[in-house]
Amino acid sequence: MARPRRFRRISENPQIRCFKPEREDLDNVNPIEILIDEFEAIRLRDYHDIQQKRSAEIMGVSQPTFHRILSSARKKIADALINGNTLVIIGEGHMNQYECNECGFEWLHPRKEYEKCPDCGSTNIHIVEDENRSEDLLMQRKSYGGTGLRAGPPKVCKCPNCGYESPKERSVPCSNTKCPKCETPLCGVE
Asked: Residue 112: which region, alpha, beta or left (left: phi > 0; alpha: psi -120 to 50)?
């Protein structure tokens, strides 16, 4: 079984999604579909001229994966230009996050709809609606080597004295922040 596709960060969705050549017989020609991650790779590397290694880091993928995405996009664009096909950009800059109610496994996918868990095969799954939670999960997995929601840094900094809570700032230990009410150093809470 193929593993679920890794999340690819998309900085911005395209403003224009379709490019058509000046042709009379467009009805007989199939449009060429460029995925949103291919669009992002072209935007970062070719339009903004960001080096491939840095572009891969921005998208949250390995350099070889970025190269494959970029090569695929360039090939599709070349095909459309040479053969006069329509280019259509498909996909959105967010992912569907799924969770298995049986085993707790969580995964992301940009387009595919799942009917069963890829880990245990259960059909008792649901889509997690909170997009911010998806991004938090991805940052935990990437930055801290975790395998799920139970891994990684605390999500909230809390005062042990008065109970004041504030969102955890990335790269800033909770103990470096003092409670605005009682000046006590905060503690990390899951």
From this structure: beta
Interstrand relation of 18-19 and 32-35 (parallel, antiparallel or unpaired): unpaired
Who wins on pLDDT, 190 or 134? 190
Confidence at residue 65, expressed as pLDDT on a 0 to 100 scale? 92
Enter the pTM of the model: 0.50
Residue 129: which residues within 8 A CB-CB, separation 6 or more? none
In the chain the domains, ranked by start, together with CATH numbers, are: 18-90 (1.10.10), 96-141 (2.20.28.10), 156-189 (no CATH)
**pLDDT surpassing 90 at residue 45:** yes
For residues 70 and 116, the model is more confident at 70
pLDDT at 111: 54
What is residue 78's predicted lDDT score, i.e. its pLDDT?
A: 95
